[in-house]
Amino acid sequence: MARKAGALETMPVSRYARQTRWGLMLLTGVMLAFLYLPIAFLILFSFEDASTPGLPITGLTLHWYQVLLSDTAIQTALLTSIEIAVVVTIIASVIGTMVAFPLVRGGVRAPGTLRLAFTMPIMIPGFLIGIGLLIFFRQALHLQLGLYTVVAGHLVFTIPFVVLIVASRLQGFDRHLEWAAADLGASPWRTLRHIVLPLIAPAIFAGAVLCVTLSIDEFVITFFTIGPQQTLPLYIYTQIKFGVTPEVNAIATVILVTTLSLVVLGSVLLAGGRRLRHRTAE
Amino acid sequence: MAEMNPQLDRRQFLKLAGTVGATAGLGAFLAACTSGATAAPATAAPTTGGGAATAAASQAAASATPGPTGTFNWLTWGDHWYQAEMDAIASSIGIKANITSFSDNIDAYTKIQQVGGQVDLVSGDALWVPHYYESQLIDPFDINSLEVASQLFSIARSFKIWTSPAGYLGYPNGWAPIQITYDPAHVTPGADSWQLLLDPKYKKRVVVEDQPVEVMAYMGKAAGVQDPYNMTDDEIAQAKALLVQLKPNILRLAPQATDTVAALKNGEAWIATINLGADTAVMDQGGPKLTTFTPKEGSIGWMDSEMLVHGGANQNLLMPFLEVHEQAEYVAANFMINRRPLFNEKAYKLLINQGQQELADHLLYNKPETVNTMTLKGPGSSTQKVIAAFNDVFGS
Amino acid sequence: MTAETREGAAGSAPLAGSSNSIGARLGRAVPALPGLAVLLFLFLVPMGIMFVFSFWRTNNDFKVVVDWNLDNYLRFFVEGTYLRTFVKTLIMGSLVTLSALAIGLPFAYFLVRYTGRMTQRVILLAVIVPFWTSYLVRVYAWQAILGENGALNQFLMGTGLIHTPTDIFNYDDPGVFLVLTYLYFPFALLALYASLEKFDFTQLTAAQDLGARPDQAFRHILLPQIRAGIITACIFVFIPILGEFLTPTLVGGAQSSLIANLVVNYLRQAQFAEGAALAIIIAAFVTVVMIIFRKSFRVEDVVTSG
Questions:
Q1: Residue A185: which region, alpha, beta or left (left: phi > 0; alpha: psi -120 to 50)?
Q2: Which of A67, B185, B229, C4 places its Cα 20 to 30 Å from the Cα of C70?
Q3: Each residue's pLDDT tens digit, A12-56
Q4: DSSP output for B359-394
């Protein structure tokens, strides 16, 4: 943080620097507003009287939140979704990052082909992956379906995202840092742990965030690979005959508020920790 | 150097949080994996149908001798159960249902085809039931061995398509025809035919479902086809011609009933194909008063049932479960939640006692023989060609 | 000291990680093994099964029966609707990718350049957390905004800007375009951020010291170094759009079907052989394009100094 501020201060200010900065800030703000516009409606509909979410609003009520509190089925479904997403994210982030290194640094014979191979799961519609896995698991492997088969199914299409993101970060990574560390006597493992990983952490973070996003709302592959369990997307997407009620808006609002609070809380705690460290360091 | 320390702090924190989170996640995940049944313990206060729940539960508890307990796996639609009922049944006879949902018969069929006995009870429509039977995926049973079956309309216990030499193929649940509904404020009243959908006056005012086979079946009916799920090439061509006429009228192909109801509710759509009863939902939510009719050329419809999956590990729990789940009190409460007719005759009488006769009659509850006038949904031989025709019309 | 050196030159640099013995090479490839295992067993094998299916056909019993034929592949080329819809999907995908990049790049630039690391993470999470709620529920909200009696029209009419409800978004392609941009923007953003984050902004200082205009510095210094990120962002947006069928259904009308809708119409009715063939043709197309432009997708490490 300190170094960034330094760079800004010493930079020769071009004629347009201030306008650029304010312009970019405006764009960011407008885009954030655009992203949250449907969210505002989502939250609004969770309070609406009618049993189908949508305009016009005939009245406001807390009824759907009450329904949510006593609906153990949807709560269990949500918890299952979260469990799956957490496990998938951890495994995919680790495996994907591991693949990125040989891919970029010449550990494999045909990196271009391998990268293409890892892009393929993104090209195939989820339906096909789901059906293929169902047939493979049942007829070739005779497995009982369960949450672990769901995790396996999710890994197929989340790992490519991690691989691609981390690989694009690794490309052009300044090897001199590693070589300097080696000169100073660090083993490859220590170099990895203390130099490389911290520097590519933002890419791994971005990949992990993508994994959670992809997994937590995945419906098609989940349907075909799950056993006698339920996830939240399954619950929502399968109400085709009689439609969803604003209860799903309520649970979406709860998810949103909880995770945003955790994010804010986490950043406040960490910022506090850093300030404390600065103070004691002086 | 001061910059290294904040990084360590953050890393330490993240490491700690990560370890805790991962352990918790993995632990919970492994627990869930091994337990298999994730049904939650019964909660205290049921919401709707509270009185009905306790009444039926105590009745069942009084009449039943202590039977097997445990959890079974049920693949079904969301309107076949409600949480308060499941909690009450779990606490009264100790049988829990581990419910997974699906949306189309074909999805459930594909799943059961592959996983077989990993599911114990599966719900299915009309002509899908004999299809399951022919594929040897379900076990027939003697429906009259269930005491609660005497509460059904007699017609429901003797559907030919659900009868086999080895017994009845499924326990009947509910039914509905597809109807056409319209807003008389914008649409000339008095329509009685599928042709209403094709009237060029209503450009972008019609909502139909995003179901290629069903929509082509509607057009087949409009063209006078007898069996729209097994159409000949000529009939498909006729239906396709009508579909081309329909296309400019379509506002949207609705993926869910929610979308149809929402479009009618806010006035974007004036005409729609719906399951019987969806019009009451629109009006209840502040939408316009709608007129509904069954097209004179004949309609499509469904009737569903619960089937016992062959090889299910917990099949012994199913009969005791059905004895309680299909009691009139629960069925009546289900009707009030989901608003479409069911096959339980005693529940109809209960509804009359509760003052709901008008609603029940409006939804044809006491006329289960209507199912004989419907073309029943089911797997057909023209599926592939029909999809090809649909793609041709709705592609660019 | 800013010249890029190719990997050949790296051989003369200190030797950490550049030994060429079999053992060393094998050792370097080991980390890729779990990923390769997943790819092989959970993707290639099941897709191999579907590939074989695509040459057979589905019977009335929804079973795929052995009946070697090319009908399922010919269908894509013979019946005009698939080609036309495919072209439309390519155009839609390109437009969405361009707009996601056009917004994502300044957004990511702002984050990396003007905010600290913690703020960056908070904002990124703020962008993506709404995407952890149900897709369906968020798109329903868009319907409420874009529809004929939706919030947008009510706003425009209420402020007197228009007098009859605007029809542009009314269950038609522009609505699909808008919602697709909304849905895929975070993917582009994350990919661009990950790549932009490593960029050393003092290079722009140096360039300007040497007399470059800001936009020249941007084009010749910044863009080449984040090219990998831009390409990744394109992959993250464009390719999934080729498989998007829910958004056209939810927000589009009768004319908004994209190629995935046509494919899914088959798959949803368990016509796996027919659907698989169509999906494989699309994947093959993307693969061919990526092979033709493989120079742009070059992944071998280039060593930068300075």
A1: left
A2: B229
A3: 566 677 888 888 999 999 999 999 999 999 999 999 888 777 777
A4: HHHHTTTT-GGGGGGSEEP---SSHHHHHHHHHHHH
Residue A97 has pLDDT above 50, yes or no: yes
Nearest C-alpha neighbor of B321 from the set B105, B50, B88: B88
C62/B109 Cβ within 8 A:
yes
Give the per-residue pLDDT at C235. 92
What is residue C8's predicted lDDT score, i.e. its pLDDT? 39
pLDDT digits (tens, 9 = 90+) for B98-114: 888 888 899 899 999 98
Residue B354 CA from chain centroid, whole number: 25
Q: Which chains touch B (3 or more CB pairs under 8 A)?
A: A, C
If one counts every other C-beta atom within 10 angstroms of the C-beta of residue A180, the result is: 15
Q: pLDDT-based confidence at C221, cuts 50/70/90? A: confident
B73 DSSP β-pair partners: B98
Residue in A with minimal Cα distance to C260? A125
What ipTM was reported for this prediction? 0.84
Contact A224 B111 (CB under 8 A): yes
For chain A, domain boundaries? 71-240
Chain-centroid distance of CA A232 in Å reads 17
Contacting residues for B149 by C-beta, under 8 A, at least 6 apart = B143, B157, B171, B326
Kindly state the tokens that stand for B253.
Answer: 């192909």
CA atoms within 13 A on the CB side of C76: 21
Q: How far is CA A3 from CA A175, C113, C197, in A?
A: 21, 12, 14
C171 touches B at CB < 8 Å: yes
Distance CA B91, CA C78 (A): 61
Q: Are B225 and B238 spatial neighbours (Cβ–Cβ below 8 Å)?
A: yes
Which pLDDT score is estimated for B52? 45
Q: Is the pTM of this model over 0.90?
A: no
Q: Which residue from B minimizes the CA distance to C173? A: B396
Given CATH 1.50.10.10, say whether it is the number of domain A71-240: no
What is the C-alpha separation between B298 and B300, in angstroms, rounded? 7
Check CB contact under 8 Å for A125 and C291: no
CB-based burial label for C40 (10 Å; 0-12, 13-18, 19+): exposed
Name the nearest CA neighbour of C103 among A274, A33, A137.
A33
Q: Is B342 helix (H, G, I), strand (E, B) or coil?
A: strand
| Closest listed residue to residue C275, CA positions, set A220, B257, A115 | A220
Distance from CA of A279 to the nearest CA of C (A): 19
DSSP for C158-212 reads HTTS-SS---TTTTSHHHHHHHHHHHHHHHHHHHHHHHHTT--THHHHHHHHTT-
Backbone angles phi, psi at B308, to 5 degrees: -90, 120
Residue B87 is which amino acid? D
Asked which of A17-31, A101-115, A251-265 is least confident by mean pLDDT, the reply is A101-115
Give all domains of chain B, ordered by start, each with its CATH number: 50-169+302-373 (3.40.190.10), 176-299+378-394 (3.40.190.10)
Partners of B174 in the beta sheet? Answer: B342
Q: Residue B13: is its pLDDT beyond 70?
A: no
Q: Which pLDDT score is estimated for A56? A: 75
Q: Which residues lie below 8 Å from residue B3, measured CB to CB, with a gap of 6+?
A: A1, A2, A3
Q: Is A12 buried (19+), middle (13-18) or exposed (0-12) by CB count in 10 A? A: exposed
- CA torsion through residues C232, C237, C242, C243, sign: positive
Residues of C in contact with A173 (CB under 8 A): 198, 301
Three-state SS for B70? strand
* Rounded-to-integer distance, Cα B331 and Cα C176, Å: 41
Nearest to A87 among B25, B83, B118 (CB): B25
Query: Domains (ranges, CATH) in chain C?
Result: 1-53 (no CATH), 70-292 (1.10.3720.10)
Short-list A126, C57, C72, CA closest to B391: C72
